[in-house]
């Protein structure tokens, strides 16, 4: 595999995706520490070299069942666990945020001529030594086919964000492809890296229905593992691809074992039946105990997800920024973190993870101050009425809060919020629903008052949040996106449009920094903490590297091996 | 007899149609939908949701969707799973074996053990054994299967290390011994409630029989007790159990649903739960129709068997 780290744009400062030193200079040096937070340094054994040929197997336990194996169709995070093993993107994002070429020979930049200065022309040079699992050579035709398939009206593509801007795809050579973008769109670099896998033209062009074919249940890719077998409801086995073009794989087999109950999953990890606990990992209440288990290593790492209270900004009192500020001041965040989440997550004020290059330092820090909250509401004319509930102009400061029923930690958080907010004259009622209900129209069409939710706002590693905070992205108002908060700000729209056109990293950091300040100031969301995950691996299993830029930490099983 | 069977068959088919209509309506009218699972992963925009919904035909009116589904089902096309694109019948059949294995084992344990406890309890009415069996049955019927399963795992897997903590087999092994090893705990947990029920039913049935005049007559004629018990009492006491067996299927399926979740058993119960969670309409409807058919067949067979045994039923 080429080890050229991609540089994203050039600009006057010649800044690409920064290296470690530049990260520190940019104030994002925290990136170095996150991977090894908590007990992650508990690796007592000395890392050894990977074996010369694949050896042994890894049983990875997942609490959800992967069922979507066509990597361009609607799928959830757990499906990506399979996609990363079977397929390859043009480039991927490493834990430090660098773009690393995979099927591409190098990551296109303005410096290397892969990107035109205006960001409209993309020229991708591809590897010529890559083969599909059935032995057919991978070429630029496959890339063109994949992009066209996504935009095909008959195909049930997951998302066309970014892809719909791709025009005039031109195959220059079997190992080179060019295209033109309708408008400059810098987040496309991340979309191609983290969410777009290339599929085989020679197989899929022959199927009659692109949404259902044998490929869907026996996929053929260019990734480090070949499709083995699937026992529905139980496990999926992938076998090492000896002809893989990159590093690894170093194990003969990966078995993804589906264990829906997290307590049972932890028990099987404890009894040694599984080697790795993935996706939702180990429940917080088991983490302390898990750290004491012999022969196990526990990694507690941050995720890109931000746990927050989502206010519906068009609902009653939430339209008043003062109310949102008062509610925010009255939340005892530290109690939520310490008492309910075992002190594992970290406070945050931004929708961007603290380890990202685009994270804005120095945002106003939340302070638990009910007295100030009361004073703010008094000053704004919210007077206490019957039952101590405040009201102003006929609008009562009472609302419902919803979350996924059965999520014990969130339900306990709601109980704390009820107490915290009652103290300032706000009445909150719980209105929880099953996942399949709450995340349907109720959420998408902004039918809620407020919701506790964890959201990954990033597009891979890109902070473009146009679909989340853009005025044109409010589904309840016919918009194209998921701005269910109904946040509308002309300044945010301007910054979002600007950031999506910029290719210079320093400029983008400034733009998205301004946006984070704006969203924090407007309190479009009330952030609680940055998400975290506790994962366990058996001692002796090397190569596990949490990656905040991926939706799933088993993205690199190709690099795992038994010491 | 033929007319009786035809009548019962017609009723069963009508019932299936009603079950399908109600099931379809309840499932589709419940809030949420198959695409809501993707809202949390946040890669899809509202436009994507609407497009995919259109492509799946979910934007049509409910009666049209039902008629379309029903029409295709009559032709043997039960649709495709929204989750993995597999044909519904194939999805069901891939999970059926595991469930049948579990249910059959649990049933065998329950019938043998339950009947033995029931018979002995009836013969030694109010004895220590009978009292213990009664208390035990009450406890077994009261214990949530989920909790009992977790305790079993804790004691026999975590603490003693005798049994695997779940799964149908050790990946890479799969020998008959390995399969049996994995089957013990979930089958026993599933059999617990069943055994209690069979025990209670059998005790009542047996009590009723052994108090009949013909049993007293047999004793008066000097017939050996073992012969009275097996030939006269047990055979007659087992008659009402035919109905019990026919109606046990839904209970068993409900228990399997929980046992499969606790023991990560890849069967129909877990498939059903998962499919409901994901609002995988075609699979949920498929399982619903399959289960309803099984229950009706069980009930039908019980009725027919009863009619064969007792001709009065046919004209009743």
UniProtKB/TrEMBL annotation, chain A:
One of its GO terms (molecular function) is peptide transmembrane transporter activity. The keyword Signal applies. SUPFAM superfamilies: Periplasmic binding protein-like II (SSF53850). GO terms for cellular component: ATP-binding cassette (ABC) transporter complex; outer membrane-bounded periplasmic space. Keywords: Signal. Residues 99-471 form the Solute-binding protein family domain. It comes from the Bacteria. GO terms for biological process: peptide transport. Gene3D superfamilies: Dipeptide-binding Protein, Domain 1 (3.90.76.10), Dipeptide-binding Protein, Domain 3 (3.10.105.10), Periplasmic binding protein-like II (3.40.190.10). InterPro entries: Peptide/Ni-bd, SBP_5, SBP_5_dom, TAT_signal. It is found in: Periplasm. Belongs to the bacterial solute-binding protein 5 family. This is Peptide ABC transporter substrate-binding protein.
UniProtKB/TrEMBL annotation, chain B:
Residues 96-306 form the ABC transmembrane type-1 domain. It is a multi-pass membrane protein. Belongs to the binding-protein-dependent transport system permease family. PROSITE patterns: ABC_TM1 (PS50928). One of its GO terms (biological process) is transmembrane transport. It comes from Bradyrhizobium sp. LLZ17. The lineage of its organism: Bacteria, Pseudomonadati, Pseudomonadota, Alphaproteobacteria, Hyphomicrobiales. CDD domains: TM_PBP2. Pfam families: BPD_transp_1, BPD_transp_1_N. It comes from the Bacteria. This is ABC transporter permease. It is found in: Cell membrane. Keywords: Cell membrane, Membrane, Transmembrane, Transmembrane helix, Transport. InterPro entries: BPD_transp_1_N (IPR045621), MetI-like (IPR000515), MetI-like_sf (IPR035906). Signal peptide: none annotated. Its main location: membrane.
């Amino acid at each position: 595999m080429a080890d050229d780290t991609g540089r994203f744009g050039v600009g006057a400062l010649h800044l690409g995706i920064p290296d470690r030193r530049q990260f520190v200079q940019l104030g994002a040096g925290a990136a170095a520490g996150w991977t090894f937070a908590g007990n992650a340094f508990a690796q007592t054994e000395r890392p050894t070299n990977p074996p010369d040929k694949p050896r042994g197997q890894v049983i990875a336990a997942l609490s959800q069942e992967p069922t979507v194996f066509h990597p361009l169709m609607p799928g959830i995070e757990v499906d990506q666990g399979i996609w990363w093993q079977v397929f390859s993107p043009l480039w991927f994002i490493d834990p430090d945020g660098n773009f690393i070429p995979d099927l591409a020979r190098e990551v296109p930049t303005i410096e290397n001529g892969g990107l035109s200065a205006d960001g409209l022309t993309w020229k991708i040079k591809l590897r010529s030594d890559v083969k599909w699992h059935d032995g057919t050579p991978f070429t630029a035709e496959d890339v063109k086919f994949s992009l066209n398939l996504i935009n095909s009206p008959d195909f049930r593509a997951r998302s066309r964000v970014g892809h719909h801007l791709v025009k005039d795809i031109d195959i220059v050579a079997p190992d080179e492809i060019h295209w033109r973008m309708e408008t400059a769109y810098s987040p496309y670099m991340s979309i191609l890296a983290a969410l777009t896998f290339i599929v085989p033209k020679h197989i899929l062009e022959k199927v009659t229905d692109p949404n259902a074919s044998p490929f869907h249940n026996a996929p053929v890719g260019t990734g480090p593992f070949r499709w083995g077998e699937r026992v529905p409801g139980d496990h999926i086995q992938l076998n090492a691809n000896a002809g893989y073009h990159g590093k690894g794989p170093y194990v003969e087999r990966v078995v993804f074992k589906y264990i829906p109950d997290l307590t049972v999953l932890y028990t099987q990890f404890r009894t040694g039946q599984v080697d790795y606990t993935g996706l939702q990992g180990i429940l917080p209440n088991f983490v302390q105990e898990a750290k004491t288990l012999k022969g196990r290593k526990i990694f507690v790492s941050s995720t890109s997800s931000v746990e927050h209270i989502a206010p519906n900004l068009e609902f009653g009192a939430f339209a008043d920024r003062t109310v949102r500020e008062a509610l925010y001041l009255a939340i005892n965040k530290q109690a939520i973190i310490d008492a309910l989440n075992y002190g594992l997550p970290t406070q945050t004020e931004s929708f961007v993870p603290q380890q990202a290059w685009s994270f804005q330092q120095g945002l106003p820090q939340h302070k638990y101050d009910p007295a100030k909250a009361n004073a703010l509401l008094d000053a704004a004319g919210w007077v206490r009425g019957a039952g101590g509930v405040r009201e102003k102009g006929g609008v009562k400061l009472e609302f419902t809060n919803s979350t996924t029923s059965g999520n014990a930690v969130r339900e306990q958080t709601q109980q704390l919020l009820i107490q915290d907010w009652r103290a300032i004259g706000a009445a909150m009622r719980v209105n929880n629903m099953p996942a399949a209900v709450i995340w349907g129209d109720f959420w998408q069409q902004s039918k809620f008052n407020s919701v506790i939710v964890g959201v990954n706002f990033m597009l891979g590693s890109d902070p473009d949040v146009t679909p989340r905070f853009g005025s044109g992205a409010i589904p309840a108002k016919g918009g194209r996106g998921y701005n269910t908060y109904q946040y509308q700000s002309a300044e945010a729209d301007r910054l979002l449009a600007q950031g999506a056109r910029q290719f210079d990293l320093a400029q983008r950091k400034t733009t998205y920094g301004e946006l984070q300040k704006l969203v924090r100031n407007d309190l479009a969301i009330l952030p609680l903490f940055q998400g975290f995950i506790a994962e366990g691996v058996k001692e002796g299993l090397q190569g596990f590297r949490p990656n905040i830029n991926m939706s799933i930490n088993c993205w690199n099983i190709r690099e795992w091996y038994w010491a | 007899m033929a007319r009786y069977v035809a009548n019962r068959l017609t009723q069963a088919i009508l019932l299936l149609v009603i079950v399908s209509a109600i099931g379809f309506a309840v499932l589709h009218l419940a809030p949420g939908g198959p695409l809501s699972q993707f809202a949390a992963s946040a890669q899809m925009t509202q436009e994507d949701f609407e497009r995919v919904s259109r492509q799946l035909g979910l934007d049509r009116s409910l009666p049209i969707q039902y008629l379309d589904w029903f029409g295709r089902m009559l032709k043997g096309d039960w649709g495709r799973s929204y989750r993995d694109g597999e044909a519904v019948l194939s999805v069901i059949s891939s999970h059926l074996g595991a469930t049948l294995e579990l249910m059959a084992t649990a049933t065998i344990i329950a019938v043998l053990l339950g009947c033995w406890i029931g018979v002995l309890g009836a013969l030694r009415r109010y004895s220590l054994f009978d009292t213990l069996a009664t208390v035990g049955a009450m406890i077994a019927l009261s214990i949530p299967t989920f909790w009992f399963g977790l305790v079993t795992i804790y004691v026999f897997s975590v603490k003693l290390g005798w049994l695997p903590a779940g799964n149908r087999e050790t990946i890479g092994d799969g020998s008959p011994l390995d399969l049996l090893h994995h089957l013990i705990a979930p089958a026993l947990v599933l059999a617990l409630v069943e055994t209690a029920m069979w025990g209670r039913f059998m005790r009542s049935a047996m009590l009723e029989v052994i108090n009949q005049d013909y049993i007293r007559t047999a004793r008066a004629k000097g017939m050996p007790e073992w012969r009275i018990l097996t030939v006269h009492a047990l055979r007659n006491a087992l008659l009402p159990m035919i109905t019990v067996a026919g109606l046990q299927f839904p209970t068993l399926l409900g228990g399997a649903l929980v046992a499969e979740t606790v023991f990560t058993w890849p069967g129909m119960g877990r498939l059903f739960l998962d499919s409901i969670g994901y609002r995988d309409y075609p699979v949920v409807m498929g399982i619903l129709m399959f289960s309803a058919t099984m229950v009706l067949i069980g009930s039908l067979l019980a009725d027919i068997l009863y009619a064969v045994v007792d001709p009065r039923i046919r004209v009743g």
